[in-house]
C-alpha cells in the first residue's frame, strides 16, 4: 500500500481551522483542504493537501492500493514540530488495516517541511518526495503584489530593504566633495531620498512616527502639560547650546594659549547649565502636574526639581572653578549646598509621604 502523506510542519491546518490531526482518508482530507482554503486561500499548505488528493485519485483510478493522510507539527521549534509529526505518522500507520507492506510518498511545499523526512523514513520506507510549486502569472500585477508583501513583512523588510537603502546612500556620500557638479548633485539627492525611504520602511520608522503623532494629538486634547513642557524644554536646550558655544568662544578669545579638552567642556557647561537646569525644571514640573491631575502623584516625585537644581549648582560651580570664575571657598560652598539640598528634599518628602500614608490608612481603617 502506498501512503500519500501531506506534511504541514507548522500546523497551519490545526491553528487556522481547528481540525484535529492527523487527518486520514480521502473525504476527511478533502474537507480539511476546503476548510483551510476558505480560511486562508494564500496558504501554500492548501496546495499540498489538494496535491495529495490528486495523487490519491490518480492512483485509485488505476486500482492501486492507496491511502492519503495529513500530518502536522506545531509552530514552535523545529525539534518539537518534527517529534509531533513523527507521533502523528505512527498514528496513521497504526490506523491502516492492511497486510501489505506500506510505503509512502511525502508531499511538501518547501525545504523547511522536508526537514522532517528523516523522521518519517525511520518509521516507513519512502518511495519519493514531491514538492508542490504553485505556478504564477509573470505579469506586472503579480510583481507589484510581491513587492507589496515584502514591504509589509517585518522580517523581510528588515533583512532586504536596509542593505539596499545603505547601498543607495553610498553614492550621495561620495558626492559631498563635488558639490559644484549639479547633475551629480541632483542624482545624489534623488538617490539619498530613495535610500532614506527604504531604510525608514525597513526599520518601520513610519509606525513610530504615527504613534508619536497620535500620542501628541491625544496629549493636546487631554490637556496634558507635559507636551507644552517638552516644547519649552526643547527651546531652552537650544538656547543653552547657543549660550555654551558663545561662552566657549569668549573663553578662547580671552585666553592666549590653546584650551584643553577639560577647559572647553567647562566653558560649554558654564555657559549652558542655567538653560539646561531651566529645561529640567520645566519638564519635571509638567510631569508632576500631569501626575497630580491623574491622581497618581506621590511625594517622592517632588524631588525631581530639587535634584535638578542641586546638580546644576554643582556643575556650575565646578565649571566656574576650572575657568577661574570661582575660588575654592565658593566651590566648597556650592558642593555642600547642592548635596544638602538633595538630602534635605529627599528626607522631607520621604517623611511627608510616610506620615500622610499612615494617616490615610488610619482613616480608611476607621
- In N-to-C order, the SSE pattern is EHEHHEHEHEHHHHHHHH
Instruction: Outline the biggest β-sheet.
Output: 5 strands, mixed
Tell me the fraction of residues in β-strands, as a range.
Answer: 5-15%
Q: Any idea what the radius of gyration is?
A: 35 Å
**What is the spatial order of strands in the main beta sheet?**
2-3-1-4-5
- Number of beta-strand segments: 5
Backbone structural class: alpha/beta
Euclidean distance between termini CA atoms: 82 Å
**Fraction of residues in helices?**
55-70%
Which residues form runs of ≥5 with pLDDT under 50?
Answer: none
Rough shape? Answer: elongated
> Mean pLDDT across all residues, rounded?
81
Number of helical runs? 13
Number of domains: 3
What's the topology here?
Elements: E1 2-8, H1 12-17, E2 23-24, H2 26-39, H3 44-61, E3 66-72, H4 78-95, E4 103-108, H5 117-121, E5 126-131, H6 140-152, H7 154-174, H8 182-203, H9 205-222, H10 225-254, H11 261-293, H12 303-322, H13 328-365
Parallel strand pairs: 1-3, 1-4, 4-5
Antiparallel strand pairs: 2-3
Helix pairs in contact: 2-3, 7-8, 10-11, 11-12, 12-13
Amino acid at each position: 500500500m502506498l501512503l500519500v502523506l501531506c506534511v504541514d510542519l507548522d500546523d497551519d491546518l490545526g491553528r487556522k481551522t481547528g481540525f484535529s490531526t492527523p487527518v486520514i482518508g480521502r473525504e476527511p482530507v478533502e474537507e480539511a483542504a476546503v476548510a483551510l482554503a476558505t480560511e486562508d486561500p494564500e496558504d501554500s499548505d492548501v496546495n499540498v493537501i489538494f496535491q495529495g488528493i490528486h495523487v490519491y485519485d490518480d492512483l485509485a483510478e488505476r486500482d492501486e492500493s492507496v491511502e492519503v493522510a495529513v500530518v502536522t507539527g506545531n509552530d514552535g521549534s523545529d525539534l518539537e514540530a518534527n517529534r509531533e509529526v513523527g507521533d502523528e505518522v505512527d498514528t496513521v500507520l497504526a490506523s491502516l488495516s492492511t497486510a501489505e507492506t506500506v510505503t509512502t510518498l511525502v508531499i511538501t511545499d518547501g525545504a523547511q517541511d522536508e526537514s522532517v523526512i528523516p523522521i518519517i523514513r525511520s518509521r516507513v520506507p519512502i518511495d519519493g518526495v514531491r514538492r508542490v510549486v504553485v505556478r504564477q502569472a509573470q505579469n506586472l500585477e503579480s510583481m507589484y503584489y510581491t513587492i507589496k508583501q515584502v514591504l509589509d513583512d517585518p522580517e523581510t523588510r528588515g533583512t532586504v530593504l536596509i542593505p539596499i537603502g545603505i547601498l543607495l546612500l553610498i553614492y550621495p556620500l561620495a558626492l559631498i566633495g563635488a558639490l559644484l557638479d549639479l547633475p551629480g548633485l541632483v542624482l545624489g539627492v534623488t538617490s539619498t531620498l530613495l535610500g532614506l525611504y527604504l531604510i525608514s520602511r525597513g526599520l518601520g520608522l513610519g509606525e513610530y512616527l504615527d504613534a508619536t503623532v497620535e500620542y501628541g494629538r491625544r496629549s493636546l486634547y487631554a490637556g496634558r502639560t507635559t507636551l507644552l513642557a517638552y516644547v519649552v524644554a526643547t527651546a531652552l536646550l537650544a538656547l543653552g547650546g547657543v549660550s555654551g558655544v558663545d561662552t566657549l568662544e569668549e573663553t578662547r578669545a580671552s585666553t592666549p594659549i590653546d584650551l584643553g579638552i577639560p577647559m572647553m567642556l567647562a566653558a560649554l557647561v558654564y555657559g549652558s547649565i542655567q538653560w539646561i537646569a531651566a529645561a529640567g525644571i520645566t519638564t519635571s514640573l509638567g510631569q508632576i502636574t500631569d501626575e497630580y491631575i491623574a491622581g497618581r502623584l506621590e511625594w517622592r516625585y517632588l524631588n525631581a526639581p530639587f535634584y535638578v537644581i542641586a546638580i546644576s549648582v554643582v556643575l556650575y560651580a565646578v565649571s566656574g572653578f576650572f575657568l577661574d570664575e570661582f575660588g575654592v571657598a565658593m566651590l566648597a560652598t556650592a558642593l555642600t549646598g547642592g548635596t544638602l539640598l538633595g538630602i534635605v528634599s529627599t528626607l522631607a518628602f520621604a517623611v511627608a509621604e510616610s506620615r500622610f500614608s499612615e494617616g490615610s490608612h488610619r482613616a480608611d481603617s476607621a
